[in-house]
Amino acid sequence: QVQLVESGGGLVQAGGSLRLSCAASGRTFSNDFMGWFRQAPGKEREFVAHIRWSSGSTYYADSVKDRFIISRDNAKNTVYLQMNSLKPEDTAVYYCAAKLLQSNTYDYWGQGTQVTVSS
User: What would the mean pLDDT of 18-46 be, rounded to a whole number?
Assistant: First the structure.
């Protein structure tokens, strides 16, 4: 059974940085995708970034491009989201998710970690 466990959230001032981690277990990922999503209060969940396990290719939402960096450590089966130059509008619960290569949607989700950016 696949499990995704996020960590690293917290409270930070605007302009600061945080690094989120997502530890995956229960499956060896190869050509699959790992993504980060976020959901702010009263808003729909939105895509933040994804990375492909095998190639390391990445893709970002425009709102976080040039500020956030997604990476993975295959040996640790862990994906990271380095968040820099944080803004109050980045405040949200951040979720990691796994999409198998043959799927059209994300198949597995973590429980989420809160990120709060104060102004």
Answer: 93
